Amino acid sequence: MPCEADGECASGESCVLDHCLESQLVGCHRAGDCARGSVCVLSGYSGGPRGNDGMQSACVSPLSGADRQPTPPATPPEPDTGTTLPHDDLLKAARKAAQE
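and the corresponding structure tokens:
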């Protein structure tokens, strides 16, 4: 269940955006904690039972990275000229069997 307050979390955890996080990994609790135009986001969902192992919160500007464009590769990639995919024969056999 989502939390609404720190008291609903385990000892040493804080409630951030409906999730309990380890208190030392909390950079913000809500957008109001961030600079104007930034938002409070969570990162680091885990595969553990609670999904919060190592989860962090931080203020992020939606414009961050907008001034940095990816560098194009030195040589353009070669076009894919393949006419078949791996295991195409299995797919064709499965379709044929389904029609029979």
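(Above: one complete record from the training split.) Residues 88-99 form the longest helix (12 residues).
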